[in-house]
Amino acid sequence: MIKHQPSEKPAPATRIPILLHFLGRHMIFGMSFGVALASAMILTNAAGLNDLIAGDHNPYLMVFLLEFMFALTFASVAMGVAVMTMRPQRAHDDKPEDKLPRPPGPTGP
After folding, report:
1. Model's pTM, two decimal places?
2. What's the whole-number average pLDDT of the chain?
3. Most buried of 17, 64, 72, 97, CB within 10 angstroms?
4. Residue 54 falls within a domain, yes or no?
């Protein structure tokens, strides 16, 4: 008969990595902005949008699709802008003093 060793304990839950937290924060901001903009466009009847939605046989689907697509678009834009404007980090940046720009000269880079 084969004896099985007790399985190892599962690893404790770890914190969310910094980059995922960074992207998630920007994604939520972009989605919020997209939903707010789409809602404002519907409420103000921009370009007759509210009239078009109200005249449709399934207005809830139209509102959902508009809100979802705006949220997706603006979340992608916010995450893209966040990544493109990130400062590059060096592997040995452990001290906050290393992140400050150094003045040019004999002690500078």
Report:
1. 0.67
2. 84
3. 72
4. yes
